[in-house]
Protein 1
Amino acid sequence: MRKIFLTSLVISSLLTASAQTTKEERKQAKREKINALIKQEEEGVIAYRKHTIFGIKLTNDGYGAFLDFGRGQSITKALLFQIDFSERKHAKEDKQTNPFIPTTPYIYGKINFFYPLKLGVQQQVLLGNKSNKNGVSVTGNFGGGISLALLRPYMLDVFDTAIGRRRNIKYESADSSLFTDNSRLLNPNDLSVSGPRLGSGWSQMKVTPGLYVKAAVRFDYARFNEVVNGLEVGVNAEYYTKAIPQIVFVEYNRFFANIYVAILFGKRK
């Protein structure tokens, strides 16, 4: 029994030592690779030629996400092809709750959900490189492209006592007067309003084309790694061919601007 115990202890010690050696070898290999990449860039060689980055952003008027495909042009420049999708909310949106029955809250007078879909190109310029493998590189991005305003009607779900069943109403229809009549919407003996269902309005979506420009500063915490980790802060401006109806009793706009902050994830090769 004692021999078995000693044998097991020796094997366990050897395996632990082997694992530690392998771990140290991997760390050393990674350090050598990063040092080689830094040296290559100092000599004018592009370390990574492509990247794919996914960003999750929070704006001052909504939220969104984007996908970024980068192609290196030189050590200091890259061309970015970007797909961006977000939801833009109006500053005067007022969420209300039906006080008589438990229903989904609704936004009084909201006409459309507003989803900007952007397809564009950006030029990325290196502003400050890492001084060492633990530093942060800073790049400036600027560009623009096409912006499509996807407008999904805001459909209120109401129980209409006149017909004895629930139905959807929207602003741009024969029900537009009911849409803004809170005295009826909140009357339990009349319409009994509820907010829109997740699947409502998609088949009636309209598209308004436009253009956008964008400028941002990107902080890359892992420039010499294959995995991308970073932060981006920027401004965005859009102009559409038609005014966008967002909410009643408020002037419709063609021009929109916002600021955003985004968390970045991705890979390089």
Note: The first strand starts at residue 50 and ends at 59.
Protein 2
Amino acid sequence: MPNTKSAERRMRNSARKQLGNRSVTSRLHTLEKSYLSLVDTGKKDEALQALRTVTSAFDKAAKTRVVHKATANRKKSRLALYLKKIK
């Protein structure tokens, strides 16, 4: 338990921020999985649209520092390579 009022406030703030960050990362995982399922089925047009959505979500998460910028860039690059392999 926190000993001071400021520590108590920090605990409340960090708990609130943790919930927000968890929802963002959960959404990222969901979008990534749905994109990969579209790639596996070979639906190129729908996968391209899903890639735009995933890329945008990773950029927004990196902007708010939920995900590190380099991690977001690496994931976006690898996801784009999957789309490139579809003929």
Note: The chain has a mean pLDDT of 95.
